[in-house]
Amino acid sequence: MTANAVRLVEVGPRDGLQNEPRVLPTETRISLIERLVAAGLRHLEVGAFVSPRWVPQMAGSDEVMRCLAPLPGVTYSALVPNERGLDAALANGCREVAVFAAASDAFSQRNINCSIAESLERFEPVLSKAREAGIAVRGYVSCALGCPFAGDVALADVVRVSTELYRMGCYEISLGDTVGRGTPGKTKALIEACASEMPVTALAGHFHDTYGMAIANLYAALEAGVRVFDSSVSGLGGCPYSPGATGNVATEDVVYLLGEQGLQTGIKLEALVDTGHFIDQKLGRVTASRTARAVIARRGRTGERIPN
Ligand code: HMG
Ligand code: MG
């Protein structure tokens, strides 16, 4: 990655769709992913090998994974909560997985039915098996800026879990503001605290937009040196185990911000807006992206499309 490049991890097909009330057929999920790739996304989280009783929207992730044509430079990843999830991911051709821990025990219990300590024990064999299979593992730390059940979360707890996942072999730690209550000052402190224990290049930001702070928090993390961000086309979704939380920062808004800052993402904004419109129609929702609304309104006024 060049010095002025930022990598986006598109989590709409997973984090986005897992929380939409309408469960989509796998063909629609695959079509969404293919459109995102055509728009220039190169790292996409396409599903989750979790219990379909816990998250029915992610059932069929095996079929989604199997139907995606491998493309040079494109990574399709999936969430796995345990060894069984990893086995299913591997059996369906997945070449990158993500384990998901939390910095709050209350959230960990509700999300994956075990404590933080138990989850880390569960991830050890996942990481060693993934290493043997030669596939990369990303690590999530949820509740990095607060917990939907326990409220404030100590920075020291976030740093401890992040460091542990990094030590276990996760190549990148995505710090999740699961509940979307963070603010830029807290984000800066979070990044600085984690970067004191691991390289800032191993950190990613994952911001939900519940209080409208996601893009501001992303910018604070960018200023603190982070160059990898998770985002969701059209600002889809949320987390089924984080009541009231809204979707991720919208990919369209991030692409606009970074482009205007002179940072390269390789993503075509107009094609991305069209992809957001495609999935919104399938879900019967309106976009949460301010940039998408502005682009669509401008097209209506002038017919103009931004050259990609
Ligand atoms: P459990 O009940 O403790 O475990 O659930 P279990 O071993 O007793 O299994 C329960 C059932 O799940 C059994 O089936 C198992 O066979 C099945 P049943 O007897 O009920 O028919 N099972 C599985 N099925 C498919 N794939 C598997 C698997 N493992 C067991 N891998 C478990 C524990 C982890 C399975 C469950 O709690 C679970 O699936 N949780 C998933 C929760 C989830 O996906 N949450 C959303 C993602 S996290 C997130 O969104 C945050 C993030 O975006 C970052 C941020 O914003 O902060 C990443
Ligand atoms: Mg999330």
UniProtKB/TrEMBL annotation:
Pathway: Metabolic intermediate metabolism; (S)-3-hydroxy-3-methylglutaryl-CoA degradation; acetoacetate from (S)-3-hydroxy-3-methylglutaryl-CoA: step 1/1. Its EC number is 4.1.3.4. Residues 6-273 form the Pyruvate carboxyltransferase domain. One of its GO terms (molecular function) is hydroxymethylglutaryl-CoA lyase activity. InterPro entries: Aldolase_TIM, HMGL, PYR_CT. One of its GO terms (biological process) is L-leucine catabolic process. SUPFAM superfamilies: Aldolase. It is an enzyme of class 4 (lyase). Belongs to the HMG-CoA lyase family. This is hydroxymethylglutaryl-CoA lyase.
